[in-house]
Amino acid sequence: MPQCAWIRYIDATELQLIIVPTITRSALILFLLAAAASSSAQESPFFVTYNHHMEEPGNLDIEVSSTSDVARSGQQTYFAPYMELEYGVTAQWTTEFYLEGQSTWGDSTVFTGWRLENRFKPLKREHWINPVLYLEYENLNEASRIQKEVEGEAPDVSSPNALLTPELDHELESKLILSSDYHDWNIAENFIVAKNFSQSEGVEFGYSFGASRPLATLASGADCRFCRENFMVGAEMYGGLGSTLDFGVHNTAHYIAPVLAWAISDDSTLRFSPGFGLTHESNPVLFRFGYTYEVQNFGSKVARLFGRKQ
Amino acid sequence: MRRIGRSGFGLAMLGFCLVTAASLAQNPGYQQDPTWHAPADAASRPNPLASKPETAAGGRKLFLRNCAECHGKPGTGIEAKHSADLQLPVVQQQTDGVLFWKITNGNATRGMPSFSKLPELQRWQIVLYIRTLKP
Fold first, then answer.
1. Does the ipTM exceed 0.90?
2. What Cα–Cα distance (Å) separates residue A284 from each residue in A77, A208, A275, B98?
3. For residues B99 and A77, is the Cβ–Cβ distance under 8 A?
4. Which of B10, B54, B62 is nearest residue A139 as measured by Cβ atoms?
5. A57–B27 C-beta distance less than 8 A
6. What is the pTM of this model?
């Protein structure tokens, strides 16, 4: 019997016994990597919801994240890692590039595509509500599982990768991001409109909301890793709203997810979020982990590399 | 053929954005921005931590994390970054409220980002620390 075949017959409890140690080991490795980092990471704790805080100009964030699930009966558990490069072009423009993959237990590991997104903050000053315009091009296949956003109807998590990977998605996605800072809370609302040019799905809709705040608002003078000000907590809620062909919450996935971010050093942030499915079409639980390392003055360093005098 | 066309479009879009991004990722030469003024109500706000000078230590830590990258550890500015020398009288003569407003809003046209992501008290801590910067 091939090694992968028996995995199809073990139950969810046994699968968790396999996954939990793996996630624990991954978290430990990330922790050690972060602890070894040299040094201002005050990253948003959200995985799905965007707020109006842009990447600082010239800085590059390198982020490695993953989404994994607890599967329903008859479905396979997956692990979907992705890498994100986020660059602050100007104080009002941040651009990001993603590479993503996916591994399904008892199936296969596949590359699921890339994304390029841009966020523009049209207003120069802070306001009660700060709008940001978001535009993303996705070159993915149907095996994509990172669920960086949830829109339209719930994704197909039952079919094998061999059937899903040939189905390409060329999608243009836009978001209206509204975000407010109120008494140390950040409250953000995202409204999603997406059009997949490869499938006849109509125009799809989605949403996400989030609220977060740091555990302490006054910074201590001590150089500490476990100070309360280094932790941010919050929650986000996200889901699909169907499409122009079938608008509404019918057959859509929705999640509510507590979020936690820990600035383990000046340049590094760890994030964790368990997302709980609210509908039958949702995964029962999504586990998200993320590690971000910020390279300060990346733009200047590259410019110097190419001989530009500063 | 159709797929190649779409992939080509995607790659062209990626290339365009990267080239445009690289060309714009430059800080223009620093000079005082005469249009960067805090509103009167913001300028008159007192520092709520003024009676707690010990919190400037936390301000120093925040300054080193968030500001030193452009203004240098002593706050004298970095020529290559065209950033302001925070020890200059032209900066130190500004009210706490003005400095707080400038940290909060940034000056996008001059490459100074907004630091509204920091809690209010932490921004006031930075103002408190800036007051300790002396030539």
1. no
2. 11, 18, 8, 50
3. no
4. B10
5. yes
6. 0.82
